[in-house]
Each structure stands twice: as C-alpha cells, then as structure tokens.
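PT: before anyone asks, these are the final sequences, not the draft ones from last week. 512 residues across everything. Please model them as a single complex and drop the result in this thread when it's through.
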Amino acid sequence: MKIIASRDNSTFKTLRAQRDTAHALLDGPHLLAAYLDKVGRPLRVIVSESGLGHGEVSALLARCGGSEALCLRDALFRELAATETPVGILAEIAVSTTDAAPPRGSCVLLDAVQDAGNVGTILRTAAAAGVRDVVLGTGCAGAWTSKVLRAGQGAHFDLAIRERVDLAAFLSGYSGTSVATVARDGESIYAIDLSGPVAWIFGNEGAGVSENSAASARRRATIPLAEGCESLNVAAAAAICLFEERRQKLVRMAET
Amino acid sequence: MKIIASRDNSTFKTLRAQRDTAHALLDGPHLLAAYLDKVGRPLRVIVSESGLGHGEVSALLARCGGSEALCLRDALFRELAATETPVGILAEIAVSTTDAAPPRGSCVLLDAVQDAGNVGTILRTAAAAGVRDVVLGTGCAGAWTSKVLRAGQGAHFDLAIRERVDLAAFLSGYSGTSVATVARDGESIYAIDLSGPVAWIFGNEGAGVSENSAASARRRATIPLAEGCESLNVAAAAAICLFEERRQKLVRMAET
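LR: through. Structure below.
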C-alpha cells in the first residue's frame, strides 16, 4: 500500500478538496460498513498509519478488496477526517445523485434547510419511514458533506437523493398529494388523508417554507402544537409528519 | 453602566465559570426575550460595547429595568458568548430546577442522552407537545449549558426540569404508564393506549435505554421502522412518540 507523508502530494491535495466534487469521503468504520453492505466497494480506501493496527480497520480493508488503498501519516489523516477522534479509516465514493423524473411514491422536499445536522437527520428519518426519494432545493446543506453523512448514519445509501432542484418545477411533475408544512393556519396533519403518495415540503430553520414553494403545493399542513408554542425543530417536525404518514399507511394495510 | 475591560476582573471570571453553577447564561436576544416573556427579569444583563448600538439590544436592555447591567469590551464579550456571531447581549439567570415528587401528568425521562443538540431539541419538542416535566438522568448533557439552551429555543422556560435523577427511583413513584423506547421487539407505539398520563424513557444515542431503566418501566415500545432500517436519531424518535401521544389525546378530546 502506498504511504503518503507529504502535504504537497497531489493525491492528498485532491482528497482535501473533495467535498465540493462529485466524490464524497465517508469518515469512520460505521459509514464504510453501511456502504459495503448496501452499495459495494468504494473507489478508494484511506487509512491512517496508526489505524492499520485496529482490528476493525483491517477487517474493513479486507472487505474493500478491489479498491485502491492508501495509507496516510497520522497528521495528514487528521487533516482529512471530519471527526475529532477518527478511528483511522476513510473511503472515497462516487456521489450517487439522480435527475430522474419525480417518483410515483412519497418523497421529501427540503427548502433551504441549512443546518447539516438537520438535513442528515431528515435523511435518516425518511429512510426509516420507508420514503425513498429526497429532493434538496437550493440553499440546503450539501447532502454529501461530512456532517450530513455523519448525521445520516448510512441512510444516504438507501435513498435516491436529488440536489439543487427547482422545487416548484419538480412539484409540477408530481402526481401525488403535495403538502407544504407551515407553522400556522394549515390543516392539521392528523386531518389529512396520507394513505396515498405524499410529497412533503419542509422549510428553512428560521423562515420556514418559502411562499413560492408553498404556492406550488396542493395543501398546507400544520402540526397542532400546545398552546403558546410556536415552532418545532425542522427535523423533529419532519419525523412527526413522516411517521404520521407511516401510521396511516400501516392502518390501511391492516384493514385490507 | 459599569464597563469591564480586563480579563482579571473578578465578575468576569465568575461569569466565565458560570456554566457549572446554579446560574446559567442566556446567549442572544431570542432567548432573553423568551425569558422576559415567560419568567421575568434576569439576575444580570451583559452587553458588548458594540452591542450597545443595536436597536434590538437597547430595547431588551430597557425591558430588563431592575436587573444589574454590565458592559464588556467586545473581546471579553466574545469569550463569554457561545455563538460565533453574538449579537451582543447575554443574561445571567438562576437555573430553575425542581426536586418535586413525580407529576401526575405525562413526562419525558432521558437516560444518558449525551448530545447537547438532542437534549435541547427534545426539550423543545416536549414543550410543543404539551408535556411539562422533563427528567434528566445521569450522563445527560447539562440542561442549562449554552448548546442545550440554544437548541431548546426558550422551551426551558415552559418546563419543569429535573437533573441528575435516579430514573428507576423516579419511576417507582410515578402512577401513570411508563414506556421505555427500545429499538426492537417492543410493542408498536401505535398499539399502545396513550390517552392517559405517560412517562416516556428515551436512551443514549449509541446504547439506547439502559437495561436498568427499561426494567423499571411497565412497557417497552418500538417505533415500527421500514424494513432494513435499524434506528432513528433519539430526538426524532422522541418527536414521533410525543406527538403520537398528542394525537391520541386530541382524538379522545374530540370524542368526549
């Protein structure tokens, strides 16, 4: 395995610039294991010199059989790894996005959700709710950045993710029920029939769903909060909506 | 107003050490405004020299009438403020905890939830769901630390918060239904009657609810996830459970 010791090495420079390209870096054994389970081998696997001694790292390295492997001096590795105490393994993968037409099933649209933790948590929740398509409009945190990958906990590999999408144009081609979530004066989410395909729109942490996106949706829905409370964290709101949809679909399945 | 310019000033030193005491620092206009609306005047209000020029800061300062006011040179202020771009106002408040006996209504118990963002988001969700009592066991992020306050968005002032509580002892005095949330093999949350008082237990990000806490609960509940998905972020799970309870209670209220 090639060992890189210099900051001036061109491969190292490329890796460090990775976050804005069509490649992404998976940080740590958990994400790499999820990728190997669900997708396949990464393009390249990168270990730290001290990581070579970890049993978990060498087991993963063995599973990456055909992938190019690189070893970095620990100091260089720390510059690439996003976490403070990296176990010593990173994997470079091709980012999997799609430009396919709107799906027939349910999907989640994010309108300028800026916080990486929120975007990653919503991806994780969508996968757990059985929703496969997630569409990020402009102004969202990048789906394949290290913080979003970390919060997603591997959900990325179960999803079809679209980025930098014009949400209004997307919705015009969607045949199911589109629902913009708004802080007040929408229909109660509990009063809407969610047993068919639903496109949910969740908005920016401060401003909510933009007027333009809300106008493109067929319905506006509100989570009925306790008296005197104004809002929820957007990832909490998404969890409530997506699992209300899942609950209604489970009830319907049990009835038929 | 007294201006503090030196790092050696004893008041400044005390403020900097604040986070482990019975006092907490509210960072920024949003939290202070929520406190003024819901609780009253802070013990002390602290502004940065440049903050004095902001209209929002001077309006809040006026609302803090009887509170002691301090002005810090900008460099000192930045050492105290938790956010990267502080607007220039902090408030010192007495931490409001309770040792009262378990409530009769619903409550949320956190078992070693370590991430400050998760704890704060759960506090915010609990308040929005109409749950008033939150009980933090050992190993949780401190409820009154700056990151938890920020994620809580003012929910702290709507809640009765207990910290460093023996959860099993607390549950032994609770008369409602106690429900430990577990990743698998519990009853479906949708199959449990949540129309009466419920004590929910949510567990650590990695390990979940400890065996000891789960054994103290009357029931074990699981959120039914899509095939192949293992888990949710704990704050997302809490949102789903607390709003399933709220939905059931709203249905019951509509029926009676």
